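Ticket #4471: structure export looks truncated?
Reporter: QA, pipeline team
Priority: medium

Steps to reproduce: submit the single chain below to the structure queue and open the exported record.
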Amino acid sequence: MFRSFFLAGFEGSTGYNRHGRWFDQVAATGHDGTVERDYRDLAALGIHAARETVRWPLVDRGGRYDFSSLAPFVEAARRSRVEVIWDLFHYGYPCDVDLWSDRFPERFADYCAAVARYIAPPLAEEGVARMIEALVLARPADARTASDRLIADAAARRDAEMAVGEPVSA
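Actual output as written to the record:
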């Protein structure tokens, strides 16, 4: 399923605690500043897959999306050829989101679709994109079609690489 047996994971809890105080474990661990080196080190160790968090509260600005906090992770994964399992909801959510409202599923689905559109093109070219099951819950037909296409493309490239013994460009 992945290019390596072992997978890495980086702490990604982000949000507000019960006292209303902001916390961001990606920043607290420094991973947001060392992601390029972190992924390069993983690849050097033969680890080519990792779980990474998309920090929803930083990306979703009232239904408008700012991917500047995610861009370094997507680019580092592409450059290091690390396959990423993208965690789209690791505790935190935007302040204007009510988890119990009827609008929550639609808001979450919109966010998931926006992240997929942002992540998929640069990573699909390298054959390292992974869609997570949250997308299936969000928009089943669209998510499954996109995920199936990306996985099939990645598998075909992986098979071609194994046949020739070196990376094959998209």
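Status: closed, not a bug. The export was complete when the record was re-opened. Leaving a note from the reviewer for reference: Confidence is low (pLDDT under 50) at residues 125-138.
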